[in-house]
């Protein structure tokens, strides 16, 4: 039995179903990221776990105890969960200390216990020198740390984060990704984290759950999701990739539209329907001459951009399809020149859907 379980959970608003039969198991102490585009159902799934919305069908269970179902819902305050929002939701008239102590005071803990626990968490989150400041006197990153400290200080069973870094600039977002992971490793809370940013998910998660149109497309470790996508949607959403399509020749080989055979080193093509494969931009070899007997096609350079550490190519192959490839700066082919593309078999992934 997993610590947190979602079993065939659905959420409907009238005729619209936004979460569609979601099954998910989260082990104690894991950090799980719900990842997907806007409108895919990830925030609604988080709100179902938190108790902010009722399930239309299915169950949410914590240690086997049903906290949400179509017939009954334990209110948020009865779930021992903490939630962190995009907007930080700090009290502007309270100091850092008072904001962090708020949940402990609601629980009517003794004053000396409140002070000890607040100072402990402020030290861990590097906020102790700022304990007497107000939110308006803090940077965005500092406010986010206060929000984290307030959520952690009550020692929740489950920590829920709803796109917590979306209001920060790029540099702060990167810094806070590592901070969230550091705090998770220190406290080992079971965490469910919603984001649309694949870099956040790759940096922070033990398990990434990719959602699309209310369904779970795939769940696995960051390495599994990136290196072994099971569908075209997952391959496109996680990292830059080329999707090649054509006629199925076997479980792992297809004749592509550019009239060349692509043999894949992993995955399996669907028995019927469109045969498709994924090859990451940086895994394709670009050159002036043919580099191998198999998995090669000749095309014409349509675009070449110098990026400092590499060159970014767009190559048009027979049939009119364009392939994007990342090559070393030493590979310099002008627009309009002929170019050979080699797709290493071990880097090609056959997709089942």
From TrEMBL:
Keyword Transport: yes
One GO CC term on file: ATP-binding cassette (ABC) transporter complex
Molecular functions (GO terms): ATP binding; ATP hydrolysis activity; transmembrane transporter activity
GO terms, biological process: quaternary ammonium group transport
InterPro entries: AAA+_ATPase, ABC_SmlMolc_Importer, ABC_transporter-like_ATP-bd, ABC_transporter-like_CS, Mo/tungstate-bd_C_term_dom, P-loop_NTPase, Transp-assoc_OB_typ2
Residue span, ABC transporter domain: 4-238
Pfam families: ABC_tran, TOBE_2
Entry keyword Transport: yes
Entry keyword set: ATP-binding, Nucleotide-binding, Transport
PANTHER family listed in its UniProt record: SPERMIDINE/PUTRESCINE IMPORT ATP-BINDING PROTEIN POTA, SPERMIDINE_PUTRESCINE IMPORT ATP-BINDING PROTEIN POTA
Protein's recorded name: ABC transporter ATP-binding protein
Species classification: Bacteria, Pseudomonadati, Pseudomonadota, Alphaproteobacteria, Rhodobacterales
